[in-house]
Amino acid sequence: MSNSQKNTSWKHRLHEIIYEADTKEGKLFDVILLVAIIASIILVMLESVESFDNKYHNFLNISEWIITILFSIEYILRIVSIKQPFKYIFSFYGIIDLLSTIPKYLSFILVGSYHFAALRALRLLRVFRILKLARYIGASNRLLIALKASRAKIAVFLFFIVIICVILGTIMYMVEGEENGFTSIPVSVYWAIVTMTTVGYGDISPHTPFGQFIASIIMILGYGIIAIPTGIVSSEMTKSNNTTVHTNTQACPNCAKENHKDDAEFCYNCGSKLNP
Amino acid sequence: MSNSQKNTSWKHRLHEIIYEADTKEGKLFDVILLVAIIASIILVMLESVESFDNKYHNFLNISEWIITILFSIEYILRIVSIKQPFKYIFSFYGIIDLLSTIPKYLSFILVGSYHFAALRALRLLRVFRILKLARYIGASNRLLIALKASRAKIAVFLFFIVIICVILGTIMYMVEGEENGFTSIPVSVYWAIVTMTTVGYGDISPHTPFGQFIASIIMILGYGIIAIPTGIVSSEMTKSNNTTVHTNTQACPNCAKENHKDDAEFCYNCGSKLNP
Amino acid sequence: MSNSQKNTSWKHRLHEIIYEADTKEGKLFDVILLVAIIASIILVMLESVESFDNKYHNFLNISEWIITILFSIEYILRIVSIKQPFKYIFSFYGIIDLLSTIPKYLSFILVGSYHFAALRALRLLRVFRILKLARYIGASNRLLIALKASRAKIAVFLFFIVIICVILGTIMYMVEGEENGFTSIPVSVYWAIVTMTTVGYGDISPHTPFGQFIASIIMILGYGIIAIPTGIVSSEMTKSNNTTVHTNTQACPNCAKENHKDDAEFCYNCGSKLNP
Amino acid sequence: MSNSQKNTSWKHRLHEIIYEADTKEGKLFDVILLVAIIASIILVMLESVESFDNKYHNFLNISEWIITILFSIEYILRIVSIKQPFKYIFSFYGIIDLLSTIPKYLSFILVGSYHFAALRALRLLRVFRILKLARYIGASNRLLIALKASRAKIAVFLFFIVIICVILGTIMYMVEGEENGFTSIPVSVYWAIVTMTTVGYGDISPHTPFGQFIASIIMILGYGIIAIPTGIVSSEMTKSNNTTVHTNTQACPNCAKENHKDDAEFCYNCGSKLNP
Questions:
Q1: What is the pTM of this model?
Q2: Which superkingdom heads the taxonomic lineage of this protein's source (chains A, B, C, D) (predicted)?
Q3: I need a labelling partner for C108 at 20 to 30 A (CA). Which of B169, C24, C153, D260 fits?
Q4: Domain covering B144-243: architecture
């Protein structure tokens, strides 16, 4: 075996561990990553609680550094182990990975870079990448199939809701007026959405009898039409019960595309050989 | 080709562009109209935000004039290109088109005609006319079919909700009384609707133990019976999955009726020839 | 035709008009009654609005007297036209009819009988009797069939919700304590119901971090399990779509039982001949 | 019949009464227990209402003692009548039984043991044991089957909701900031859950226009995706309508395992003979 082949084989293994989840090491890597992400999110959260940050500032700071360095190593390994690094770097997850790792380094250079800190919360998005694991239980995939099938209907429905809320919000702005908290049409539309979706904060609420009458109609409408998206998904779910679901977690070692068929041997996107 | 034929042919083309959406120009017209409507709605909204209006009053005013003139031209073209103009003028959309265009001109004559301004929000209703486009994806039609089929059941259900709310509201008026915010039966009924639909503003809330007990029952009731409209629509959606959906966007050049069958050559309403 | 026969025939006609809805006169009577009930409810509502009552007290008083007298006449006619008057008088609707008619007469004798006034709201319950009309559209009956079939499941579900709310309410009482508004276990249970059913008044809300954590769990739970009653009714509705629905509005002239089969000629309860 | 046999037979009968529900005595025992549990819960609730406790302290105290002694006797009988007492003592219900009985005795020894009092609310959990009765109506079992089948999907869905709430909460923390009530990321996540689940307390609500815009999106999202769990359960319920449900209420006299098949003669867990 030549040096170059050895090199490739070593990259092959790394690729399988980092990008896939059908070997023992690959699964272990995903579990460790999941734990690191969740720990990191809890750190970001606790840091924002002033009383906690005052007490344990040093502990939080050091833990954050450890996690940032771990994620940096992972980021570099991801670049190294793939054949077309730029495809990964400019992919959705590649950008997320960079953005969620960089803030800590920035805080070293720019002392007041407080606002970048929250970018670290983006790390949570990386959890979805690990959901490859969840795919094994078949549940999340079936959900996605039903959702994709009903995407168009739900979009039409939500578009419809927004239009109704704009019209009703404008009516309420005219009926209640600025003296009752409906200070502008956008605020009234915001109120109409709060009411229609049955959230009902109560920060703005109608005070005139006619306003309360219209509000009642909006509420009953909102209460009634919640049935529509539900009906859509229900009927799709019933259908999707008969569909077979793919559980192949392989990612192309060349272009990082996923969702290959169960018996795929070559990438459907770039045609390169998949890891056996 | 005679002059009269030329004239008719010119009207034909205009009718196809403005009223229909199965030619390239027709689709383009609809997209432009959609953008204009949305832009116009955003203008109406921003105008109502005092701080914004103070700063950019001139910009808002000029933009509004441009859009009003565009809509006026469209209105005139719609009248010109149809064979029976009065059918359009007194149709639902004809009235909407007029009402939503006129306020700006009125503000020219009557300086203080502030209240008419909000009429421009009606323009949003015109979006539904353009949904002819959406019809192509089949989704909105299927939704409408399921909703029409379950119309009677949902009406009975909402009627039932209103009756329950009136009775429970009256009971709460007796139990809580005016000192706890339930100042009259209509207000109590309003509260019952707020509670039953799980909106829950909290502007009025029960304070006596017995009132809280009744409120709990209303909430659990409302939480339980939301299942009913959902069940209705779900079962209708499941049925409608098997129905074929028409995607003909033609409108009769004579009487403007729509919803013709896919292979219709003559209007089902007035019998005149449809545009090929 | 003998005198007694004439008398019976006259009663027959009256019975058909008042108790049934399959003759022209019967339908007309029901529509008039419906209008009278709704008018009467609006009167009761407006009377409770102080500012309105002060202005139009005389108008409200006279209208109420007219409606009360009309309902009294109807009550007497109902007793006269049925063969077994006591069966009607002590039936559910018989008692409702009496209770909702009597308060106005009482106000004549007892000047301060304010509290009886609200009993008139019970008149609204009479609307359900007239829903015999609605039965024609078949919708309300289908709804009732699906609801009856899923009654047991929904009862178990609501029982389950109440138990969870009691346990979670008790936990919140311990966690948040009286200083945060959770003054007693019943109040905490009330709060848990408000939260679980996604009503969320906000009159009581958790302030400690741990309390907010538990509240989050309750909310997600409530958001998730609303699916259960919906699922129950959906699956029942799908089944009930195949069931035939009876639309016979006849009532037995002897014992006033309803829900006879479509081709019934004799009462299934007492065996007496039904009106042809 | 030897003495030992008599003894066993006596234990047999007791076991059948206490642990099962297919004899007349067994059902009666369950009903009495249900009443005692509910009475006891009402006592715990009333005790926490200060004004009530001040008035009727003695009555509450004596009633509580009576119920505590009754539950103690039941606890001892449960231990005596089973062949492997430790299996019961360390089972879930065994621990619940002990924890919910002991607080009153502790209050005798430790005068200030106020906090243990609420442990008595755990008694309510015992109601689920008696739901063996409910199993007869078949409803609760069918519900459980549908829920178990959709467990994985609902878990994935709730996991998804939590991730979205964390990300949206963090965004809102950045947008609204501490001056608008979003004091830390955990509080903002709590707010996002309150909004997404359409609870909407209103204790925290967005004040900046951009914050209200994001809040609107969260609400519409929450209103739309409530369809997902509903769709899941609906499709499972439809399936489970065809499943047969076991109504065997026997518990193994040796190891107390339940859920035996309808025609089971031996325990599927330890192999000992079930009561005929």
A1: 0.81
A2: Bacteria
A3: B169
A4: Orthogonal Bundle (1.10)
